[in-house]
Amino acid sequence: MSSTLKESSPEFEPLIVAFCCNWCSYAGGDLAGTSRMNYPANVKVIRVPCCGRMSPMFVLRAFQMGADGVLVAGCHPGDCHYSTGNYHGRRRLSAFKRLVEFAGLEKERFAVRWISSSEGDKFAEEMRLITDKIKALGPNRKMRDTRWKTIN
Amino acid sequence: MENNKLNRLEIITKTLSQDLLGGRINILLGWEKGHYWWQSRPLFIRNEKELGNLVWDSFCAINLSRYLPELLKDYDKIGVLVKGCDSRAFNRLLQDNMVDRSRIVLYGLPCMGMLDYEMLLAEAGQEIDSIDEKNEMVIVQTKDGKKQVDRSKVLMAKCRDCLYPEPVVYDQMLGEPFDRKQPPERFNRVADLERLTDNERYTYWEKEFSRCLRCYACRQACPFCSCIECFVEQENPRWLGKAYQPSENFIFHLVRAYHGAGRCIDCGECERVCPVNIPLQEMNRKLIKDINELFGEYEAGLNASEEPPLLTYKPDDPSAFSEE
Amino acid sequence: MVKMIAVNKLDELFSLLAETSELYLPIKNGEVVLYQQWQPGSLVTLDKTNSAVSPKDIFLPRDETYLQYRLCGRQLEMDSVEDVGDIIAFGIHPCDLKAIEMLDRVFIEQDPPDALYRERRNKTVVIALACDSPDPFCFCQEFGIDPLDAPGADIMAHLTDQKLIFHTRTEKGRELLLKAGNLLEEYKGAQVDKIIKTADFGLNVEGLVDNLQDRFTDPVWDELYLSCLSCGICTYVCPTCYCFDIEDYGNESAGERFRCWDSCMFGDFTQMAGGHNPRAGRKERVRQRFMHKLQYYPREFGDIACVGCGRCLRSCPVNLDIVQVIKKLGGVKDA
């Protein structure tokens, strides 16, 4: 296989992209910050208005550009700021998650979580959990654009 | 059966001729023979002479519904011959507002499945002079004599698991329904792949996609791929370049399959047209299988007024995101 | 020089050649045969008549990066990427080699020549392979091509009776065979004369080029394009197609520039900045492609840009291949 996983080394610091919905999970992230809860700096947050705005192309692009893990965080079903956005997001992301796993991506690498704006602790915890999981898995080589390293 | 076939073609041609001359349709989409008896190509019929070239046999795999959106710009009323899969393709186009139902006349043809010439050759072991079809048997004539072959053994890959051989939507049925054997479970191949490990699956798909020429024939032949600007052609943002990088090939196929989630009618045209034999239907079938499991059994293209599953939701949908 | 090798010893030969060159041969990949670089374990298939895709990508790769750039402070640094080693193109059929010679006229015999293509072409030793069992889609003889002989090859090979026999034609070819040393044996057998007949579609292309001169607005094009799906299969499998695009991959600080295949059948092939697209419709594109093959190219370079390899007949999903087009344009023998 051309993209053999390197064994995870103690120096490996994963790059994790977290797409957080503005109204719940991003606010939850804010709360974690203001409450001085620690979560790893490996997680880079990208704010979207709603998890229903998520496109599979964002996730794939992240992996292409070297992300080792991607997390999508949205409001709990029933609590979406736009009423039904996360219901659509839930269906779309379930189907998509299974599809990328079918393509061979490890199931820990792409995760979807429901985090409310009051769950600062859950936000920090989930970020810690995913960082640990990806650290154990090692760097991701699947679907990575090998040209990316030559320009960075 | 041969005689029945000729009579049937005569009946079909007679009906179509009446409609063409009578003004019910301005143009008819059918098939004509290709260079060899085991090939066919689309036929665009506007007069009696062209109608004379019409054929309907076991080598008419091409989905004619695909031409409707563009033809509707130039012709007022269009007639089209549709097999089971083609009729569901029509429903797909209808659901995507790509065709105007009132201007199309659908002539339904129940289909026993198209035959694969390479498989016939393999069964015959030598050059084939002609074939005869009797119900579930195909009799292959070579210079050494006749050989009987089970039809199910020489069907095209896309026809083997067909669940809807009879048109589900039509204005006039031009053939007789028939009994057929229950097809094999169509998700078998997907299940086989699911049983592999992540790395084995990735290696499998990497190898298959490495052959991809990015010719986009799969997209062009597909009934659900009707976007006016495909994501591939978008410049801003540029999702895909033109390079044959493994990651870009993966992304093209994953995203295309995903855009068809809940919309793919499983007609198999994508796999049939691929010049390098990539098993595209397996990606699409994975999504169909998952959507059935997660959100309830659904078959795209059966009912044009039913909402596709990814355009709708239920408050109690499963939140199946645990990694355990 | 005439040498031979037993078919069951070929892997040893390939292994030796691959040590110092990029060795391309017809390899079974999944269910199709493609010209790919040899690796131990490759399923080399020399007896199948034609690969799914022509070997033109040995000289005109599907994508080739030729420039890398980097912004260092306020300086732009550029490196050319030009490391082409020795190449061996093994098992090229006479039709495909004729097509490559057609590409040579476009890429090399111009001023200035295409340096990338020329470099690869000059560094390649071509070992052509005779076809003695054409399939129903082969019609090279319609264009005066002999399936048993490729005049432009460095080495002409014949597969016969579990042996592969090499006839050298050029100095390059001799040198290559000498490198193989005693893996090869002398061949003293008789020259076998075979009569091969490729498919007869009843074509007559004499006078077609002149005939098409003024047929740009002929109503035949209004019919011919209707079944075209506007994919790129024909252009990508065809050995005489050579359109390419140039794209960049990167961002403001670094990136690379590459050349890649493009297809005139794609809707956005002639898309211009500002929105104008002279070939927005399928009719315009179908007409362009076949006028290029049957009128524009031969007018400039002499040969009709078709070698009868049959790939478009095999691969076009709607059978809108060049034989069909020639027939519709009247290039048929009188009944």
Explain what this protein looks like in three dimensions:
The complex is a heterotrimer of chains A (152), B (324) and C (335). Chain A is of the alpha/beta class. Helix content of chain A is 36%, strand content 15%. Chain A has a four-stranded parallel β-sheet, sandwiched between helices. Chain B is of the alpha/beta class. In chain B, strand 5 and strand 6 form a beta hairpin. The mean pLDDT of chain B is 91. In chain B, the strands form two sheets. A five-stranded mixed β-sheet of chain B has the order 2-1-3-4-8. In chain B, strands 5-6-7 form a three-stranded antiparallel β-sheet, with helices on one face. Chain B has three domains: 2-112 and 160-173, no CATH class; 117-152, no CATH class; 188-311, no CATH class. Chain C is an alpha+beta fold. The model of chain C has no long low-confidence stretch (mean pLDDT 92). Classes of the chains: A alpha/beta (152), B alpha/beta (324), C alpha+beta (335). Chains in contact: A-B, A-C, B-C.
Number of E-state strands of chain B: 8
Could you report the average pLDDT of chain C, rounded to the nearest whole number? Answer: 92
**Given the helix and strand composition of chain C, which structural class is it?**
alpha+beta
Kindly name the structural category of chain B: alpha/beta
Q: What is the succession of H and E elements of chain B?
A: HEEHHEHEHEEEHEHHHHHH
Based on Cα principal axes, name the global outline of chain B.
globular
Low-pLDDT parts of chain B are none
**Major sheet of chain C:** 8 strands, mixed
The span between the termini of chain B is 56 Å
Describe the strand arrangement of the main beta sheet of chain B, using strand numbers: 2-1-3-4-8
Work out the strand percent of chain C: 15-25%
Q: How large is the share of residues in beta strands of chain B?
A: 5-15%
Kindly report the oligomeric state of this protein. Answer: heterotrimer
* Number of contiguous helices of chain C: 10
Helix content of chain B: 25-40%
Largest sheet of chain B: 5 strands, mixed
Into which percent range does the helicity of residues of chain C fall? 25-40%
Distance between the termini of chain C: 46 Å
